[in-house]
Structure formats: structure tokens, C-alpha cells
Write a structure and sequence with these properties.
about 375 residues; mainly alpha
Length: about 375
């Protein structure tokens, strides 16, 4: 059961990692601040891919030997650890420290290749595909030390920097990367324990840990994508919910809008005349401007009367203020459409801040408040067209 879970999580991790790398390749490689993270995850993904039993079996059936596969995985693993260090030391802007890491990385990778070339019995027994490429103690000490050093430094620096960063996307990318590094430390400590005390029963658990580590690495890459998607969903929600209120108010106060509303809500949402985020921002501003303009047509007692009607209708307590504002605005809109003369503005409670939350609360209740006035709105709109 554990082996099946490990294999499923491992394949899922590999798929998500490669998908994240492909998706983020173009924007990440264009920006130096993200390029190092992308290359680091790329090297780690290649090593994790070679760690999957199905991938190893496919390579074996294609003619690759167990030893070259393990050696390639180990060298790429050290490369990814070195890239982690480079990614971290880049934040210090120290050329000397960067040069030291590059020299140390080259020395570690070269040592593995030299030890493999001269320290392994080429006629030795067959090895487990997920086992060491070289049984020498020095080989494994270099490999494990490189990973532990890179991941330990990454945890400390990424977490510390994430606490001081202002960019929310960067904060979450660093924290997810640090969480993945913690899992990598657990994996390499456990693997070293297995090599020293020969506990093969721990290997499935360690394989599961390194697979979950891959998911955290992928998540650290996809933070900007997730944030962009969240902003798009928020803009879609704002545009959709605000549209009826915005449409009715800008029909009554057409001078506040740059473009007339389209005839149906779905047209403005799915085929906006500008990017959806700009559309949502524009509708919010134009709705608020229309509300300020309509305050010249609000009767002094309109808000209190609307509040009383909302209470009699059994409106929830947390929605009473929004219902009263909607009722007062509907009265002012009708007066404007009927040709009433403006008077001294009658400020409405809460309209001095222009909160999007307030506008959306009014918009939620607007259709039920204004449905009896749609006939006059449609007549005015028809006259304008």
C-alpha cells in the first residue's frame, strides 16, 4: 500500500514539476530575480525524475545501465544543491561568496566523478536502481553534505528574507521553497541513516518525502500564477456582481462613464472592452462617482425610510445599512430620470470612503430594490440609443 502511494505521489510530483517548469519558463527566464529559482527547480526536477522507479525501468529497457542512471541522478542532485546555494547567495550581492560557491560546486561534482571512475568495482554486483552509484563512504559523504549544506542555508535565508520582503508573491515563493528544503533535509538525513545502519524499510517513506518535496518546489514556482489567477477571479467576481448597479447608475448619470454598458451583463464580463482587471476598476470608480452625483437628488429622509422598509421586510441586521443605501440611491436615481432639479447634496452614510466592499454589498441587494424601476430606466436608455 505504501509503495503504491509512494509511486503515485512520485509520478504526480514529477508531472506537476515539469508542468510548472514549462509554464513558468518564459516569464522566469526573462527576469533575473526568478531565473535562479527556475534553474534550481529544473535541476532538482531532473534528479527527482530519475529517482522514480518507472522512469528507471523505462531507461533500463531503452538500454541505460543502473549505474549510469544513479550516477547521473547523484551528480544532478549535487548540481541542484549548488544552484540552491547560488540562488540564496545572490541576495547578498557578494561576488566573493558567489565565486566560493561555484568553486565548491565544481569540486563536489568533480569529486563524485573521480570517485566513481576510480573507486568502483566495474565488475561488481548488481545494485538497486535507487541505491548508491558508488559504495565508497567518501562518495556518499560528499553527496549528502552538499545537499544538507544547500538545503540548510536555503531554509534559514529564505525564511528570514520572507519575513522582511514586501512582495506577497515573493514571500510565499520563499516560504514554500524553504518548506521543500526542510523535507529535503529530512530525506538526506534519513538516507544517510539508512546507508550507515542498513534500514531498507525506511526507503519507501523517504521516497514519499522527496516526492512531496517536489510538490513544494513546484508550488514555489507557481505562486505568481496562482496570484494572477486569484486576481482574475476577483476581477471577474467584482465585474459580475457590480454590473446591475453600475449599469443603472451610469444610465442615470452618463457623464461619469467612458463607455456605455453593453446590453447584457455577460457581454461586459466575457467580452470586456478592456482587460478584466481594468474593467472591474473602472466600474468601481464610475459607480462611486455616480453615487456622489446622485446625492444631489437624495431626499433628506430617504435613507431613514429605506432603513425602516428594510427592517419591516426582515432584512438581516448585517445587511440593513446596504439595503438602506440601495433604497436611497434608487430614490435618487428615479428622481434624476424623472427630471427633478438637483439640490444641495445629501451625503449618505459610508459614501465618503468609496469602499469596494460597500459597493458590492449594495450591488447584492440592488436587483430586488430597483426591479420596480426598470421600466423607466429602459425608456431612458432606448431614447439615448
Amino acid at each position: 500500500m505504501l509503495n503504491e502511494l509512494d509511486e503515485a505521489v512520485g509520478l504526480c510530483s514529477v508531472f506537476v514539476l515539469w508542468a510548472a517548469l514549462i509554464w513558468r519558463a518564459a516569464p522566469a527566464l526573462r527576469r533575473p530575480a526568478q531565473r535562479g529559482l527556475w534553474l534550481t527547480v529544473f535541476a532538482a526536477t531532473t534528479a527527482i525524475t530519475l529517482f522514480q522507479p518507472r522512469v528507471d525501468q523505462w531507461l533500463m529497457s531503452a538500454g541505460a545501465g543502473a549505474h549510469p542512471v544513479s550516477l547521473t541522478r547523484n551528480v544532478l542532485g549535487v548540481l541542484s544543491a549548488g544552484l540552491v546555494l547560488l540562488f540564496v547567495v545572490d541576495t547578498t550581492r557578494s561576488r566573493r561568496l558567489r565565486g566560493t560557491v561555484i568553486v565548491g560546486l565544481a569540486a563536489a561534482m568533480g569529486s563524485l566523478l573521480v570517485l566513481d571512475r576510480f573507486g568502483i568495482d566495474q565488475s561488481g554486483s548488481q545494485m538497486d536502481l535507487q541505491g548508491p552509484a558508488d559504495p565508497s563512504t567518501l562518495y556518499w559523504l560528499i553527496l549528502v553534505a552538499a545537499h544538507l549544506l544547500g538545503d540548510a542555508v536555503a531554509v534559514v535565508v529564505c525564511w528570514d528574507y520572507s519575513r522582511r520582503a514586501d512582495d506577497r508573491d515573493l514571500v510565499w515563493s520563499l516560504r514554500l521553497f524553504a518548506a521543500g528544503s526542510v523535507l529535503a533535509i529530512v530525506f538526506w538525513c534519513g538516507y544517510l541513516f539508512n546507508l550507515c545502519f542498513h534500514t531498507p524499510g525506511t526507503l519507501p517513506y523517504l521516497s514519499l518525502v522527496i516526492s512531496v518535496h517536489g510538490l513544494f518546489r513546484a508550488a514555489s514556482l507557481l505562486v505568481p500564477t496562482a496570484s494572477g489567477l486569484a486576481r482574475w477571479v476577483s476581477s471577474l467576481r467584482t465585474t459580475w456582481r457590480l454590473w446591475p448597479l453600475w449599469r443603472d447608475l451610469v444610465v442615470a448619470v452618463p457623464q461619469v462613464t467612458l463607455t456605455e454598458p453593453q446590453r447584457r451583463r455577460i457581454q461586459d464580463v466575457l467580452w470586456p472592452r478592456s482587460p478584466l482587471a481594468l474593467q472591474a476598476h473602472r466600474q468601481t470608480i464610475e459607480t462611486y462617482d455616480a453615487m456622489l452625483e446622485l446625492q444631489q437628488y437624495v431626499r433628506p429622509d430617504a435613507y431613514e425610510q429605506a432603513l425602516c422598509r428594510a427592517r419591516r421586510a426582515g432584512t438581516r441586521e448585517d445587511r440593513l445599512a446596504a439595503a438602506a443605501l440601495a433604497g436611497a440611491l434608487d430614490q435618487a436615481r428615479r428622481a434624476k430620470l424623472d427630471g427633478a432639479q438637483p439640490s444641495a447634496p445629501c451625503p449618505l452614510p459610508g459614501m465618503d470612503r468609496g469602499s469596494t466592499v460597500t459597493l458590492l454589498a449594495i450591488a447584492r441587494l440592488w436587483p430586488s430594490v430597483s426591479r420596480s424601476a426598470h421600466g423607466s430606466t429602459d425608456r431612458v436608455e432606448a431614447a439615448r440609443h
